[in-house]
Amino acid sequence: MNNLGTFVALAEGGRLFGLDLQLLLDAAITAVNVFILFILLSYILYNPVRTMLKKRQDKITSDRETAESDKAEALALKKEYEEKLKAADKEAESILSEARKVAMHNEQKIVDEAKQEAARIIERANAEAELEKQRVADEVKQQIISVAAVMASKFVAKAMDDQENDALIEQTLNEMGENTWLS
Fold it and tell me: Which residue ranges traverse the bilayer (predicted)?
């Protein structure tokens, strides 16, 4: 019945909701307090959060710009290195070409020196053969002289006629042998 008593009390005043000056004043004070609280919390929370978000946004923008500049720099370095590699390849090819030319020149020089050495060896061999031929000719002359001296001494020792002379020459030649005359 307690609820019934409250209902009866409201009905006596005749109003269910009493809109009086105290209620309006309380509502206005509450509204001012909420506004002050909003401003205070805005300074305490909203501005620092907004500042933090702005710093974060600036950092992200800065990082993105740094990344883009790093990417551009990396592409430039890559292009530079590729050009250096091409230049190095060309230089290596140039060095190899020069080395081939030097090798061909050295090969020709060695072949020419070998030909000259072979010509000198052949010339020396020909000179030695000529000297040997000369020596053999000198020996043959010496033998002919000694044969002539032997024959002359035999002719003088025997005063013989022509038939005996021919026989003596024939005998002397046979004694010397055919090998003497062939060498």
Answer: 23-46
